[in-house]
Amino acid sequence: MKKVIYYEMDLSTESEIVGTYPQVDVPQKYFKVPNNFETLSVRSFPETNPNLENFVFKRAAKLTEVLSSHMLHSSIGVFVDKKFKDLIENFYVKNFQFYNCSLIAADKNLAQQLVENHYFFLHLIYANEILDFSQSVFEDLKTDEIVKIDNEEQRAPFLRPVKLFLKETPDLFRSPFNIALLVSESLKKALEEANISGILFKEYKNNEFYIEA
């Protein structure tokens, strides 16, 4: 058994990087638009692609490769530019889809940059099928006992994952049992070397991950 380190990918909030947080807002009357982003879930992909047109880039915001949004935050997915999209397509990303979107800005120069540097919305859903439950370990928060289960259906809400055994090791996926976006050491290094802005990393410590040695 070999331990695998993953890093949580968070969105930057520092004003010197993003200008203002979040950087992107929903258009006026957006929730009256058919097929708006409320169709998106962390458990499944929608039958029809969501309408993600004319999202508003705030006046005080700075342009980064990954953008923050109050309504469409990382619990569902993230706005990313083509540079980010092209980079991660060279890695193993689990259970994801890219959707077309459009961003508008009041500043003419910024609006032109948004046209030239196209953005997409990256939607990730749970990838719990990569877990080997028979080898994973959980803590019963009611009794403090360490327990094992055979499948996801047996996991009660009070069973906290301690050691999760992976059948495969994606470079980017949504963490089982919470909303964190996890990246491998190799993808983290590639994103940092490419100077992808708008994100930061910290070692994920909610539970440990293991694979066959």
UniProtKB/TrEMBL annotation:
Immunity MXAN-0049 protein domain ranges (all copies): 24-205
Pfam entry (one): Imm11
Protein name: Immunity MXAN-0049 protein domain-containing protein
Species of provenance: Chryseobacterium taihuense
